[in-house]
Design a protein that fits this description.
Elements: H1 2-12, H2 18-36, H3 43-55, H4 59-76, H5 78-84, H6 99-104, H7 108-142, H8 146-163, H9 168-183, E1 185-186, E2 193-194, H10 208-216, H11 218-226, H12 247-251, H13 254-268, H14 274-289, H15 301-313, H16 319-325, H17 331-342, H18 351-387, H19 392-411, H20 414-432, H21 438-461, H22 465-472, H23 474-501
């Protein structure tokens, strides 16, 4: 793996492509911050809409572009959270506990700057940890056979359903639907057609890109259209005021940032938990460790630092299960799966072995992106503060056009637009009925791999599955035994945190 790591440096700093790579990274960061700063426009929607752009680029250009959107969007959500108490993303909900209070005190600039520096610190540290972790984990993943992979995928899907927002049963139902959608097309073992109902367009399966844009982007657009004009923010009283953050003030937050970074990095490795829970846990830990917990919620810089460093520290480690096992860490990395697959890079145990140099080049680009991150964020804070006031009525029609255009350019087939509309309507109804679509998307993406691994396991067992699993494959048996226990523990912790902080995001 060390040779691949060194090879990654060579690919990233190739004189012919390095400038374009960092320009696209900067563009992704800027667009992510821009969308994150718009109340009601989520990072998930931005990544889904911008996903088709990456298809026309080399993987070293297109995937870092999306990673830039990912990073920038998570930070960008803190801007409206601090200025107008309207988090741009679910990850910034915890930032509203202290951010608006600081704005009322005339310290909006300090709050935005501590959010930026904390985000970059958490993001950079977790990226370095990701690079250190991914080699050994990939080496272990290569030792796994079909039974172990099937058991881990099954565990991941159940945990994702348990930790998704809403009722556990609803999560399982969405997972089942996702697995069904993933079975449309050809059987991965026998190559027999199924559930295509005589439609040649889906003989090879439901197209991934229109499905992702439909289920993640269109519902957000429809909900945005529903919202009343009274929710438009007036720009007259919205200004970035106050003095800049000083070194002694930031130094007082360093311990909190380190603690939250550890929390966020640990949570990022666990599929399905995500930035929201990390931000709440980081905030709660900072408040518990503070000598003056009564200041939290009243305008405390440490409160902003705790939430922002924790939610941004999740970004890097979510790629560990994605790249080594093919398991998206959260709904945002589901979009990255689509990008990898579109470029012919199927995430999983073989990816690091076959394309290790390219993967490390992408990860190194993610680390160096933090330099651009802090520069763009610092220079553009006043501009992004004005972005908060842009009327959504001006952007929603344009976003809708991009959604349809992106689905069309994927294969230039009218059927893809029908898939987009179908899953858009499906996602909208699910949102209205408080169903989380993340388990569905995870089931759709991981279902074929799970089915193929399970089919191989059945063949290898030679008709005696219990003996094969519990005698010949004790590691697989251990995972299966631990699945209900881990699921219950993760579900209980997730529910407790959501109730404690009053959110279902």
């Amino acid at each position: 793996m060390f040779e691949s790591f060194l090879g990654g440096f060579g690919i990233l700093f190739n004189p012919e492509t390095v400038l374009m790579t960092f320009l696209l990274l900067a563009a992704g960061l800027f667009l992510g911050m821009f969308v994150g700063a718009l109340p009601g426009f989520t990072t998930l929607m931005a990544m889904a809409i911008l996903l088709p752009i990456s298809f026309f680029l080399h993987p070293l250009l297109g995937i870092p572009f999306l990673i830039g959107v990912y990073k920038g969007g998570i930070y960008g959500g803190s801007i409206p959270a601090i200025l107008v108490s309207m988090p741009g993303t679910g990850a910034a909900v915890a930032t509203t506990f202290d951010g608006p209070a600081l704005t009322k005190k005339g310290q909006a600039r300090k709050a935005l700057e501590v959010a930026l520096f904390s985000s970059v610190a958490g993001d950079f540290t977790s990226d370095v940890v990701t690079i250190a972790m991914i080699g050994p984990i990939a080496a272990v993943a290569l030792l796994m056979g079909p039974p172990e992979l099937a058991a881990i995928l099954f565990l991941a899907l159940i945990v994702i359903s348990a930790t998704s927002s809403g009722v556990f049963v609803k999560g399982l139902l969405m997972l089942a639907l996702g697995l069904f959608f993933g079975m449309v097309g050809q059987d991965p073992i026998g190559a027999l057609s199924r559930f295509s109902f005589g439609m040649p367009e889906i003989e090879s399966g439901i197209p991934l890109l229109p499905m992702l844009i439909g289920v993640f982007a269109l519902p957000e657009i429809f909900v945005g259209i529903e919202r009343k004009a009274s929710q438009i923010i007036q720009s007259s009283g919205l200004k970035v005021t106050g003095e800049r953050l000083t070194w002694p003030e930031f130094r007082g937050c360093i311990r909190t940032i380190c603690r939250s970074t550890v929390i966020g990095t640990s949570i990022g490795v666990i599929p399905g938990v995500g930035q929201v829970v990390a931000a709440f846990m980081g905030y709660a830990a900072a408040k518990s460790a503070s000598k003056h917990p009564e200041r939290f919620g009243q305008g405390e810089l440490e409160g902003v630092a705790a939430a922002e460093s924790a939610n941004n520290a999740v970004n890097g480690p979510t790629l560990v299960p994605l790249l080594t096992l093919g398991i998206p860490g959260d709904n945002l990395t589901v979009i990255l799966v689509g990008a990898f697959i579109a470029h012919g890079l199927r995430p999983g145990p073989q990816l690091m072995q076959e394309q290790g140099d390219l993967v490390f080049a992408i990860l190194l680009a993610m680390v160096f992106a933090n330099i651009l991150f802090i520069f763009i964020g610092y220079v553009c804070i006043p501009m992004f503060a004005k972005v908060v006031t842009i009327r959504k009525s001006l952007l929603l029609p344009l976003t809708l056009i991009f959604a349809f255009a992106g689905s069309w350019v994927f294969r230039s087939q009218p059927f893809d637009l029908a898939v987009l509309v179908f899953f858009g309507a499906f996602g909208y109804m699910a949102k209205k009925l408080h169903f989380d679509v993340t388990p569905m998307a995870m089931g759709f993406i991981l279902g074929p791999t799970l089915e193929y691994s399970f089919g191989q396991t059945v063949i290898l067992s030679a008709g005696n599955m219990p003996h094969y699993i519990f005698v010949e494959r004790p590691f697989t048996a251990g995972i299966l035994v631990l699945t209900p226990i881990l699921t219950f523990l993760m579900w209980r912790r997730s529910v407790r945190l959501r109730r404690q902080f009053g959110t279902t995001d």
